[in-house]
Amino acid sequence: MPRLVLAGASAVALVAAGGIVAFRAADAPPVRAVPAAHVDPGRVAARSLRDLGAHTRGLPAATTAPFSLVGVTWDRPRAELRGTVRVRTRAQKTGTWSPWRSVTTETQDVPDKPGKNVRGGTGALWTGPSDGVEVRVTGHGRTLPAGLRVDLVDPGTGRTTTRAAGRPVPVRLAAAVEPAGSPAPSDSPTVKAAAVPQPALVARVGWGADESLVKAPPTYDASVKAVFVHHTDTGNDVACADSASAVRAIFLYHVQSEGWDDIGYNFLVDKCGTIFEGRAGGTDRPVHGAHTYGFNTDTTGVAVLGNYTSVQPSAAALDAVARISAWKLGLTGVDPTGTTKLTSLAPDGTGGKYPYGTEVTFNTISGHRDGFATECPGTDLYAKLPAIRTAARNITWPVPATSLAGAAKSGTRYYTKGAVTLGWKATGAESYEVRVDGKVVAQPAGTATSAAVTLAAGAHTLALRAVYAGGKVTDAPAYAVTADATKPVFGSGAALALRRSTVNTTAVPVTLGWKATDNTLLAAVRATSPSAKTFSPTTTSWSATAKPGSATWALTATDAAGNAATSSVARTSALVSEQSAYRKGTWRTTTTSSYLGGRGLYSSSRGAYASWTFTGRSVGLIVKRAKNTGAVTVYVDGKKAGTLDTRASTTAYRQLAWTKAWSSSAKHTIKIVVAGTSGRPVVGIDGIATLR
After folding, report:
1. How would you class 216 by CB atoms within 10 Å of its CB: exposed for 0-12, middle for 13-18, buried for 19 or more?
2. For 256, which DSSP code?
3. Does pLDDT of 173 surpass 80?
4. Where is this region: Disordered (predicted)?
5. What is the pLDDT, as a whole number, of residue 9?
6. Residue-number span of the structural domain to which 678 is assigned
7. What is the CATH number of the domain that holds 190?
8. How many Cα atoms within 13 Å fall on the side-chain side of residue 87?
């Protein structure tokens, strides 16, 4: 990737009285004609810390030039600061002072071969726009490092501005075709084409790197064997809108405060999942960074903005780390869930975790703490590394997204009559394997997106495996599938009978009953005639109404595989009025619209009776019910069949209150006899209902 070159730009150090050192970039001429344009890449102001006694050095509260990031540095890069560092800052906008905040005192990584101007440093704390600072550095029983100072980083705007207008204007900066000072293409390592799409990222020009400050051309490793994940330890107050400013501030802290050649990380990620290019030299090349002392060779460093010692990283940040890791490792075909061996290059006695020359096995996505004595990347981010590895592997060798046609799902299992089609979205695999119960039954080519499979009767697992170059495989989640070609069975076919309820001239209350079973899974029972209704597989009856006359009542039972069985019954329903009854004893006719046909019979004469002779298989007695009505004795075909008390708490007409059914249709006689119930001898009748 081309590295941005600011024509005519150079770094200038200004030394002023009082131990204040300020760094800025010299004015750079614009590429196009705009009056007196210059780049605002930010600056670092440094103030020496004075002796405050009791093993403490610091800086009393002081007004400063604007800054947004603060850290403490010292002369010797490998010297340790054993103690505490606390700062408080004044907000530029409100003028209020923050509480005291701790700055991580762990010695920051340094380049593998630090130059004479490289300094040691704490972590850098993001404060947001500030214009005042107070610092306290307290040693724990040891001499504090020499040359302590506080570095105040103003990230600037990172944009080109026009002095005459005093307002920012975008200007395209010139870029060299090759990174300045980089080796010729033939001298660089050759890498395989990326197996993973490159994720979107913000290039250095996008976050406003001042390339004139970079002290040396990039160096390249032979390969990238592992990714080390970090947190920047800058605090968790960086808004996503300020991420570019934070990256620019870290760049200035690494280069100007600590004296490094360039920003140490190869990539940085914010909590919204934005990926930023870090160290210059080409994102797709094995650029040697400064992020994991002793193991910077053949590795790349990815840092998440923030501190994750006791804060959970965002899902977007984790996804971004997985995507950039998958892409970077994919350039050389490295498995994100694998391991690799690296040799420690930290000279003994310089703070490395492992002795010089020690061969160490790492996960190909590891945490900073795995290779260096540090808490980085924080406990909560470190705990997410297994999930990041899995996600990165699935990006590198995607798990196929599959679908299953020709089968219906019920619960967690699919059901089919036998023939199904397994479909998938192409993932770039060389080929696929369709597996039934673990055995390969088809091997479609890498261009295929479906396969037809015929399953034998019974329960199976059906799965797809993607086979990638080099033999890498990923398995899609298996389907549990049952093949079944057997229809459901109606153990008891459709049967219709009268039921107790209210009757009217167009609706005779009936119950349709059945019992259906299946050898695998009954899905539903549906009524298709004389009206449509769907029932659950456990339902065995339907309370309906029949229009007087003939009708066919039909049912269809369907299993989960789609096999279907039917059962039906044809019946004729009829209403027979009370006027057609043979009567003996005293009966009177009453006329009211509440009765069927507008008329009914009533009697209070004990022993009075009415009878009907009919042909059918089911009969029901229709009566009036009320508080003051009494009982009747019911006889069928000359034999007492029961007693019906017509009393009820509320008055109700046309009540089918008593029923009897037979297994076949035949001629029968039903007779009711007034019981003469004490205090309420009256009974009212409205005829009978029959089914045949």
Report:
1. exposed
2. I
3. no
4. 90-132
5. 32
6. 577-691
7. 3.40.80.10
8. 27
